[in-house]
Amino acid sequence: MADRRGSDMGDQRGRTAVVTGANSGIGLITARELARGGARVVLACRSPERGREAAARIRAALPGADAEFRRLDLADLASVRAFADGLPGERLDLLVDNAGVMALPRGRTTDGFETQMGVNHLGHFALTGLLLPRLLGTPGARVVTVSSLLHGLARPDPADLNSERRYGRWTAYGRSKAANLLFTHELARRLAAAGSGLVAASAHPGYADTGLQTTAPRMEGRRFATGLARLVNAAVAQSASAGALPVLHAATAPGVRPDSFTGPSLLGWRGTPAPSWRAAWTLDDAAGERLWAASERLTGVVYEGLAPVGGGHRPTGTDRR
Prior knowledge:
Blueprint: E1 16-20, H1 25-36, E2 40-45, H2 48-61, E3 66-71, H3 77-86, E4 94-97, H4 115-136, E5 142-146, H5 169-193, E6 199-203, H6 212-219, H7 223-236, H8 240-243, H9 245-252, E7 261-266, E8 270-275, H10 285-299
Helix pairs in contact: 3-4, 4-5, 4-10, 5-10, 6-7
């Protein structure tokens, strides 16, 4: 399937969706296709200029589309709270936690978190928790967190989420993406224990040309690395539109299971949406509980009504697909 249109996803009219990082790449395609299906879409982006431009592009391409920009900086918890407080309406059918940064040099968010963990996981953890009452109050709602196959590079350490002991840019990225999956796992467990119908699922785009690969080297002025990333993308990456398909599947397909992980069918690299491989540690109940506790402590966001499940254990046998 080379592309996917809103009609393929079913009628999205009456649904409200928030997509983070929707000014480019996977996020922009996801927001556009949800709007094509008739959903009201909020593009939650850090840059007002790029966010407004993206929303205008969607409305220009799809006359009558309900797409609006609202500012959200996941590297600043005050911005996350302001976004949640300022979001109009009580209904929220879909939250796509998509925004992310990749392989940056060591840095800190406004709140002092390591940048990749702060943006990719902790910011989204806070956002999801603050929007949880609306999600719980909307029948059929979903939270879709975008991870990566590179989650397999490293396990997150709840005792050292900010990589104080040692920092490697790719290790930190892998930890943040593994934290995305472990967060989804623990959220799904808590929702099930509470008897909620809210579905928490994850997806990844495979190797898609989203521009994320060139961001860090371009920011650092590494011209050779930037050029090499562009060449590799041109040679082997699938398009951003194709990369968005697993996210759209997790967000809209009937029967998506809680704690499922969807990616491209061909070795997780490219192709139509299919169940994806995931590292065993992203299914570790005890690790999920520790990550959750650390995330609540660092962000100050507590998920009211979703108590710890208890009985955490390590998975045995093969990875769940």
